[in-house]
Design goal:
Chain lengths: 226, 314
Amino acid sequence: MVKKIDDMNFYELLEISPAAGTQDVHRAYDRVRRIYDPNSIALYSLFTPEETARIRLRIEDAYRTLVYEESRKEYNRMLKERNELPEPEPPASKRRPVPAASAPVQRPPGPDRAEYRAAPPQTPPLDDLMAPVAPAAEPAASATTEFNGPAIKALRERAGLTIRNIADMTKIGSRYLEYIEAEHFGKLPARPYLRGFLLLYAQALGCDSERMIADYLKRYEAAKPK
Amino acid sequence: MIEIQDALRKKEIWAIGGGKGGIGKSLITGNVGICLARLKKKVLLVDADLGGANLHTTLGIGVPEMTLSDFLNRRVENIQDVIIKTGVPNLSLISGAQDFLDAANPNFAQKTRLLRHLEAIDVDYILLDLGAGTSFNILDFFLFSDHGILVVLPEPTAIENAYRFIKSAFYRRFRKVVTHQGIKDLIDAAMDQKNTMGIRTPFDLIERVKQMEQEVGEILELEVLKFKPKLIVNQVRTKNDIQIGFSMKSACRKYFGIDLEYLGYVEYDDSVWQSIRSKRPLAVEYPFSRPARCIERIVHNLLRKEQLTASMLF
């Protein structure tokens, strides 16, 4: 709706969606800061110098708040209380009831998962994905069999995630994600890069990254023409 | 894509304005018209720059015998009689050249008669080339059109006038939807930037109107959302100049609360000047020059209802 600058929330101020990633926040800040530069002629006659200065201060505020996870979370909570933040999108809520993809490994909320908080704030906390699972829901496949392409794909589908979702979360091109799942070893990048991809992918799925990397790389090595 | 649009043929009226003079309104109108005509659209250009018409010159046509003022002064009854052919197939023109001195200020009856006749003409697109300034006639043509297009140069003077134009058009539109005399007076007072009531932005105005009558304020808010002028930045020389369009878009969002659609930019090039000197349209004389290509891109954006996005540039 129509809003004054002072009433705009930080996302509106930076012209990004509440789901924007940290990178987008950086980029938007850079862009908006340039627009509201004191010498920007695009503002000529519209805003007084005092108004421009005030807007710039708000932009700085917005950036400082949104760029750090902690303060951003805090801010999102505040927006939610004021009903300004749209509810999480349907795909996100769909994910919730799904039992953790790879429950067998009862990892404590690990350090490597923390990075994930930078992912879109709308997605439910990944802890939900990792919640201890009732033994009944234990997915037989993932616990016993090794992590090969189809197994990873199955895990992803069970978590209600599309390739696109994973690509957004990990910033890995969806093409490579598809290659990983289809085990097109020839098209995958060199081993160290692949290892990085697998690590991110495993974290996105919330499964045991070490096991997944080890299993997958073993298959990768075996298939490699020597 | 174009075939589909043909099937859904409906006439559209585009008005090209911008407040300041000499920013390329006529040039862009003429060449957009030529681009559309080449896409096999039937196009009518109307030189609504009453009192300062030179659209015919950008198209390389001499002074025509019949002009818009003949129609406005009822020397001809049918608007068809003042439509002249241009050298380009599918493109026709109503010139405003050499009109009478009083033609610059048509009265209400003349204006409505013109608009009524324009509605009845069998073409796909009518392009109105508006004059400089923010007089009521110009604003009315702008508001009447389906797409109002603003031209600016990357210069403070042109930008100042463009904002002035948006604001005037905006308040005139407000004024048309309210009936309450008190609110009309308030809008008139708000037009004065130095008004004593502290109304500086449209938001202030809407808030004030809401205090008087809640419902009217909400109607005005809807009007804000419906008002979507389009923007072309002309005579672009650097990448920063292109960026100005995005900056203006953002500033309009924050100041007026409106969505300015950034259609595109036209690069600065001597070919424009040369084509005007040789009195031949740019798109005919230098069809592969950079400005002509830029205009083609703008036409495509218009037809597809798209606009430039910042990511295209970075």
